[in-house]
Amino acid sequence: MSKTAIIDVGGGYRAIFGAGVFDYCADNDLQFDHCYGVSAGSANLASFMARQPGRTYRFYTQYAFRKEYASPRNFVRERNFVDLDYVYGTLSNHDGEDPMDFDAFQRNPAELTVVACNALDGSTKYFDKSDVTNDHYDIFKASSAVPVACEPYVIDGVPYFDGGIADPVPVAQAIEDGCDRIVLVLTRLKDVPRTQHKDVLPARILRRHYPEAAELLLNRYRLYNEEVELAKRYEQEGRVLIVAPDDLCGLDTLSKNYEGLGRMYRKGYAFASSIGDFIRG
Fold first, then answer.
1. CA separation, residue 15 to residues 122, 253, 277 (Å)
2. For the segment 94-114, what is each residue's pLDDT rounded down to a tens digit?
3. Active-site hit among 8, 23, 138, 162
4. Helices 16-27 and 258-271 sit at what angle, rounded to 10 degrees?
5. What is the DSSP letter of 238?
6. Which of 8, 23, 33, 39 is the catalytic position?
7. 263 Cα distance to chain centroid
């Protein structure tokens, strides 16, 4: 019997594409044996595993426009453009405005892997479901801490940055874990390689305090491109299905607009229609 997996690579506000994918899966009762989340992709997976379709869409289209969620004010005050404690605490805790259904999340039999980067030595950290407890969603914060835009998020004394600089497209990890049918959700164009230029200045800033993480950030484009090429090879073998947008709708990691968010979500929902046949083999 095949072991199915889904990987959401995140991508800041572009990750609303994944929210559309998961809402399609929820509406069509498509489940997976193992879920892998990187950065914002891990948050998409949390709501999916908690069986709360529409929840992540609200975060992108409603809460994300609040200054408490993400703003230059946050960065000036706390050195965090996105207030991860607000997103994954104030809003998401049991007494929050839009709580995650932790009991449903726990009952879901799917395995969970959330990718983060150790800010001190640059190693990859794979958190799992046992690292999540009620009202303690720190692994999602750690995986989503974009270097320079956010301070590293500390768990058990270890500072972590966004998993996208350590293992941005963890297809090889899923294969190693025994998964043989893998849905890969990208939020960039499938056939357009990532470039380095946007990471050069942030890496220079990061190098002052976290040189190992800075080196990873500087070379993230190369690792991302290599991992996408690996996924394409597995796709030719029928082991991977890549679901990716055909247009970025004016969205970037930390920039958004209402129209673009809506379009990107609808693309994710529509493009997910091939998943059912793929995982059923």
1. 24, 8, 23
2. 999 999 999 999 999 999 999
3. 162
4. 40
5. T
6. 39
7. 19
Residue 39 falls in the annotated catalytic set? yes
The amino acid that residue 165 corresponds to is I
Q: Is the pTM of this model over 0.90?
A: yes
Mean pLDDT (the chain, rounded): 96
SS3 249: coil
Nearest alpha carbon to residue 220 among 117, 110, 84: 117
How far does Cα 121 stand from its chain's mean position? 22
Q: What is the model's pLDDT at position 255?
A: 77
Q: How far apart are CA 255 and CA 273, in angstroms?
A: 28
Neighbouring residues of 56: CB distance < 8 A, sequence distance ≥ 6: 16, 18, 19, 22, 23, 43, 44, 47, 48
User: pLDDT of 112-158, one tens digit each?
Assistant: 999 999 999 999 999 999 999 999 999 999 999 999 999 999 999 99
Query: Containing H/E element for 137?
Result: none
* 35-56 as b/e: b if 16+ CB within 10 A: bbbbbbbbbbbbbbbbebbebb
| Crossing angle between the packed helical segments 211-218 and 220-236, to the nearest 10 degrees | 50
Q: Can 123 be counted among the known catalytic residues?
A: no
